[in-house]
Fold each of these.
Amino acid sequence: MRQQIVAGNWKMNTTLEEGIELTKAMLGKIESPRGLVVVAPPLTHLHGIGKLLQPHPQFHLAAQNCHQEPKGAFTGEVSASMLVSVGASFVIIGHSERRQYFMEDNITLSAKVNAALSQGLKPIFCCGEPLDNREAENQVEYVCEQIKAGLFHLPEEAFKQVVIAYEPIWAIGTGRTASSQQAQDMHQALREYISKKYGGSIADDTSILYGGSCNAQNAAEIFAQPDVDGGLIGGASLKSDDFAAIISALK
Ligand code: PEP
C-alpha cells in the first residue's frame, strides 16, 4: 500500500535557531500523524533538526537538493552520502526553483536521482507544468515527459523508492492552488503513465504528492482525492499551526 506523506520544504528560510523553534513547536502539535512527515530545512540545519526528529519514527529528514557526483572538486556542493551522514532519508530533486534558477535539466536530474538512490536516499521527484502549458491544455504530456526523462531509466526496485510531487508551477507560492479535480486528474494520469512502464501494482504503490499553495484550508479537499497521497508544502510549512493542520488532513 502506498504511503501518505506530508513534506515541508522550508526553502531558504529560517536561521538555525528559528528552525529549531519551528521544529519543536511542530513536534508539540502533531501527536500521531496518519502518515509520514518529512521536513526539509536548509542544509545548514539538517544535522541539528535531524537530532530533534530522531526520537519520532514518523518524522523524517530531507535535503532540498544534492549533487550528482559522489565527491570531489565541486565547491559549494553536497553529496548524497554527506546528506545520509547527517541523518537525511529523503531528498527533494527537481523542484521547479532548481530547474528555473539553477538550470537543472533532465539529464542532471536523472543523475541526481541515481546519486540519491545509490546512497539509500529516497528522492522526492518534483514535476509540474508552467502556466502556458496548462492554458494550452498539454499539461499531462509535459509532466509525463518530465517523469520519463527523470525516472524511467530506473529498474523496478529503484523506482519503488521514489516519491513523486506534482507541483504546477503556476500554483507554487502564488496563492493560486490547483482545484482538487485538477490535482486528481493529473495524479490519475501520472499513475496510469507509471502503470504502462512499471505495471499496475508498482503504480498503485507509488506515493504522488500535490504541491502548490496547499494550506490548512484546502488540504483536506485535495488530499481526499483518490490519487493524491499527501502534499509537498512550501510557505505553510513555516507555520507550525498550519503545518499541523495540513498533516491532520491526511486521509
Ligand atoms: C513548494 O515550493 O514546493 C511549494 C509547494 O510551495 P508553496 O506551498 O509555498 O506553494
Note: Residues 9, 167, 172-173, 211-214, 232-236 surround phosphoenolpyruvate (CB under 6 Å).
Amino acid sequence: MPIKVLPPQVASKIAAGEVVERPASVAKELIENAIDAGATDIRIEIKQGGQRLIRVSDDGCGIAHEEAPLAFEHHATSKISSEEDLARITTLGFRGEALTSIAAVSQVTMLTRVESEAAGTLLRLEGGEVVRYEPHGTRPGTVITVENLFYNTPARLKFLRTEATESSHIVKLVSAYAMAYPELRFTLIGNGRLTLQTSGNGKLYDVLVKVFGLEAAQQMLEIEPDEHASLAEGSVPPPGPKTKVWGHIASPSLHRSTRTNQIFFVNRRWIKDRSLSYALAEAYRTLIPTGRHPVAVLNIAMNPADVDVNVHPTKREVRFRDPRGVFATVQRAVRHTIIGQAPVTTMSSRPAAVVPGAWRRQQRLPVGQRRAEMAMEIQRTADTEIGAISSAPMLEQLPMLRVLGQVRQMYIIAEGPDGLYLIDQHAAHERILFEHLKTEQATMTVSSQALLEPLTIELLPQQRGLLEPWIEHLTAFGFDITPFGGDTYLIRTIPAALSTAQVPEVIAELLEAASEGLPVATSAERTLDIIACHSAIRAGQTLTLDEARELIRQLEETTSPYTCPHGRPPMIHLSAAQLEKSFGRR
Ligand code: ADP
Ligand code: MG
C-alpha cells in the first residue's frame, strides 16, 4: 500500500483514542480543567454511566468569548508556552489536547463566561466541528456538557462495560480528586441522585469519611506531619529540594484483596505507579497477611523539575528523576507511622458494626506485647527463608497424616509417611469450605441460616448501584437481601457457614469485586472464595487435638488440598531426607 497522510478526521479520532478511553477519562480531563481554572465548587453530573451525558460545572475563571473556539483546537493551551515550561509544570493540564480529543468523539456544549464580560458564550461542537458559537447569558465560570460519547466511533462504544462499572470508575475518580483537593467542594450526581458530596472545608479526614465511611476512616493513621506540615492541606506544594509525604494509611488490621484503595498523588496529581504500591507493601511486610493490600491515601510533594509528567497522554503515569529516593522516602514515612501509632492486631476479629465498607476493628494490645508480637512476626519471615524447607509438592491427594499438635495457634504440625507437615489452619479450613460450598452451589443446595432478627446494612451512596444487580446472584449463595428504602438493606438469611459478625466484611468485599466489573455470571468462584475466606477459622484460634484431627481429616477429603485461592502455600513439607540432612545424618 502506498504511504499517505491520514485525513485530519481520522487522525484526530486516533489521537482522541489515547486520551479518551472511557467516560471516566472525559470526567478526569474536565475536572482537571476546572481545578486549573481556580474553581472552588465543582459539580459533576452523569447519566448512564457517563456515556449518555457528563456535565462538569465550575466557578473558575471562564474563557473569553473570542478564545472559546480556540480551546478546542489541537495543542491549544493557556498553561504553558515554551519548552522550558515543560520542566516546571504546576497545573494539571499542559498538553492542550483534552478538549479537542473529547470533542472529536462526542457532542459537546460549552457555556462559559469570564467575570469581566457582560454576557458569556455558548459553543457547540459535533464530532469536532463547531455547529454553534454565539453570545449567551450565563454566570461566571464554565459548564461543559459531553453527550453521546463514542457515538461516531462504534468500535469504542462496544468496549464500554456495564453502566454500573463505568459509573464506579467515575465515582473512584471524583473520590480521588476530592481527596487530593479537600479545600474544593465536589458534588457528584448520578442519574439525578446525589452520589458523593464533599464540603470543601480543607480537611482530608472529612473527605475520607465520605469516601470510605466513618468506621474505616476512624481506623486510618495519619502520616505524622513533619516540619512541613503546612503543606498537608490546601496549598500547592512549593518547589523544594526534598520529597515530602503525608496522608492517611491503614492500620495493619485494615487490608483488602486488591490494590484499588491505594491512592497516590504526586504534586496533587492522581497517578498510578507500581513502585509506590511496592513501597507500601514493603512497609507493611510481616504486619499484614501475604496477598492482602493496605488501604492508603498518600500525597507526595516534590520539586516539579524532579518528576516528568509528560509520559502518557492521560498524564496518569509519571517518571521520577530519583525513583529510589522516592521509594525510600515513602517506605520510611509509612513504616514510621505504622510502628509509631498502630495498635497491633490479634488475628481474631471482633464483630464490627454492621456497615459495609467498614473494616475489621483492631484490638489494642499493651506495648510490651505488641513488641513481642512484632518480633515474632519478623522471626517468622526469617524462618520461611531457610532453604531446606520447601512447600509441599503439587500432589493430588494428601497422605494420611498423624496430628502432633498446634504451633503458634496458626499451624497444625503433623507426621506423614515421608516426614513432617506444617499446615496453615486458616488456609486448610478455607480450602475445605470452598470445595464444600462449591458442591452445594452447583447442586443448588447451599445451606443458609435464617437470622432471628434481620441484619440492617447501611451502604454508602456510591455503593448502592453496585449491590442492586448482585442481590439476585447472591440468593444462590444463601443470602436474602432486600432493599429497605434509601441506602438501607435488610439481610434475612446468610450462608450457614458464615457467622453474623462476618457479614459486613463479606458484603464489603463483594462490593469491591462488583466495582471491578466482574460479570455476575462468572463471579461464582470469587463469591465462594470470599465467603470461604471469612467463614474459615483464623490464625490465633486455639484448636484441641480432636479439632485439629477433624480438620486434617476433612482436608484429606478435598480434591486439591495443596491449593489456596490466594496463591500462598497452605502447607510446608519437611521430608525425612531433608530432616536427616539437616541433622547431619547423611
Ligand atoms: P490543557 O488543559 O492541557 O491546557 P485542554 O484541552 O484541557 O488543554 O483545555 C484547553 C484550554 O481551554 C485550557 O488551557 C484552558 O485555557 C481552557 N479551559 C478548558 N477548560 C476550562 C475551564 N473549565 N475553565 C477555564 N478555562 C478552561
Ligand atoms: Mg486540560
Note: The pocket of magnesium ion (ligand 2) is lined by residues 29, 32-33, 93, 98 (CB under 6 Å).
Amino acid sequence: MNKVIISPSILSADFANLETDIQKVESYGADWIHVDVMDGHFVPNITIGVPVVKSLKKITNLLLDVHLMIENPQNYIESFAKAGADILTFHFESVDNNLIVPIINKIKSFGVKAGLSIKPKTDPELILPYLNDLDLVLIMTVEPGFGGQKFINYCAEKIKNIKKNANNDLIIQVDGGINAETAKICKEYGANSLVAGSYIYNSNDIKSAIESLR
Ligand code: DX5
Ligand code: ZN
C-alpha cells in the first residue's frame, strides 16, 4: 500500500510561533511542510518569501514543499532552491507555455523536485504534455489565495485524468478544503499527497486530525 504524504500548510499556523507550530505537526507524523508563497499579483494575497524558507530550513528536518503562487516564478527559482526548498511547485497559469519545460529543468538543476499546479478552472488536459517531466502535479481544489475555503468537488475529478495518464512515480497532490471527508474522495481518485491548513491547525487535536487524513 502506498503511503499518503501529508503536508500541513503553515498558512494557518501562528506566524509568530512557526517553530512551535512546525514541531507540533512534525511530532504528530506530518511528512512535509507546505509553504504558500503569494505575491499579491498572481493571487490577491501576500504571504511569505525566501527569508522565511531559509529560516524554516534550520528548524525542521521535514521536506519543504513550496507552493509558488506568484508571477514570473522563473525569476525566483534559484533563490528558493538555495534557501532550502525541497519541492518547488509553480502555476501553469503564471507563465507562457514555452517557459514551462525550461522552468521545470531549472528547478531540477538545483536538485529540487519540480511541481506544476492548476487552478480550479484550468483543464487538466493542458498539462498532460508535461507529466513525464514532472515530479509532482498539484490540483487546486479551491481558488488559490486563502486558507479555510470550501472544497470544490469538480476539481477533485481532475485527479482521475492525471492519474490515468501519469507514470507511477508522479506525486498527485491536492490543496484546498482538505479534511477527513474530502481527503477520502481525493485518495479514491488517486491523489497521494494531501495539503491541509485550517483542518490541521484549527483542530483541538492536531494528532488525530493528521491521522484522519491518512
Ligand atoms: C491556498 C493555499 C493552501 C491553503 C489551504 O491558496 O494554497 O495551501 O493553505 O488551506 P485550507 O487547507 O485551509 O483550505
Ligand atoms: Zn498551497
Note: Strands lie at 5-8, 32-38, 63-69, 87-91, 113-118, 136-140, 171-175, 193-196.
